[in-house]
């Protein structure tokens, strides 16, 4: 009887002392969404062909794709990210400037960043003919920048 009671106490202690695993199901840092449009018809999407996209000193994010939109990360360590976009061997480079806003999500997720006051500078305009910031705040993954080519 004493062994049964002792076993039961140990079993109950083990069950109540275990914590449930924490899983991050909340949204993390959103990416910047760029949509490509036709310069002749600014409301019509136009795929960029043979597209390569990379940030300074980082690996290629897109490698020889044809698409009318891309999602790219912004650097949460500094207030700008320099991106290179090459379409059909013609390269354009631009700098995306922003203010970082750190947000605590939860214990399991930690922190995420939103980015505010988005603007573009130092655009080469080789194959990119025009740009427009359509949403200056990156807090979700909707269109933020419009590129006409």
Task: Describe this entry's structure for a reader.
The protein is elongated. It has 149 residues and is mainly beta. The model has no long low-confidence stretch (mean pLDDT 88). 11% of the residues lie in helices and 49% in strands. The chain has one domain. The strands form two sheets. It has a five-stranded antiparallel β-sheet with strand order 3-2-5-6-7, with no helix packed on it. The protein is built from one helix and nine strands; from the N terminus they run αβββββββββ.
Q: What Rg is obtained from the alpha carbons, in whole angstroms?
A: 24 Å
What is the number of helical segments per DSSP (H or I, 4+ residues)? 1
The span between the termini is 83 Å
Structure class:
mainly beta
The proportion of residues in beta strands is over 45%
Q: What would you call the shape? A: elongated
**DSSP helix fraction:** 10-25%
Name its key features.
1 helix, single chain, five-stranded antiparallel β-sheet, mainly beta, four-stranded mixed β-sheet, about 150 residues
SSE layout:
Layout: H1 2-17, E1 32-37, E2 48-55, E3 60-67, E4 69-72, E5 80-87, E6 90-106, E7 110-121, E8 130-133, E9 143-148
Parallel strand pairs: 1-9
Antiparallel strand pairs: 1-4, 2-3, 2-5, 5-6, 6-7, 8-9
In short:
The protein has one helix and nine strands; from the N terminus they run H-E-E-E-E-E-E-E-E-E.
